[in-house]
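Q: Got a minute? One more chain.
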Amino acid sequence: MVIAIEIIVAVGMFVLGLYFWNCIKARKFLSQLLANESELKEIITSLGKDAIIREAEHIQPPVDSGGEKIEVTLHSGIKAIDRLSNILLVAVVGLVVASYFLGSNYLIINDCIAFAAYFFPIRSSTKNRVIADVQNATVDIYKWKTVDSKKCKKYCIEHSELKNIYRIVNKL
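A: Always. Here it is, folded:
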């Protein structure tokens, strides 16, 4: 009976561990993406100038917000992922407590399983979520640049996260 419960707890720990570490890696992926101008350029150009222009026609420029709308857009997916990681952390702690009651050997095994999940790569769906946020921020910057180029440039250059996106948009 204990072995059957341990197997269920171990599988649960592995699955929750995979999702938890995936959430943790998402923020790092966004930072690396924003810092890597060549990868960012590849993503933005794959969207296409025509698609950016078409999408920009249907949105309000972020002039009134002073660019905060762009940063909210850029980080909206990460904030949702952060909330999910908090929920997953509670679930992982619950499984650690369950492992404790099964015995110290099971506790050690399940802790190792949870930490082993860290070594799996970030899921494509998480990368796609982050890339979608970057593409939305790109459209916002493009729209703002067409309406008030000087304010857009000043804001984006002052905010290092947006600097590379602005440089690429400026070349479109």
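A: The chain has one domain: 2-171.
Q: Perfect, thanks.
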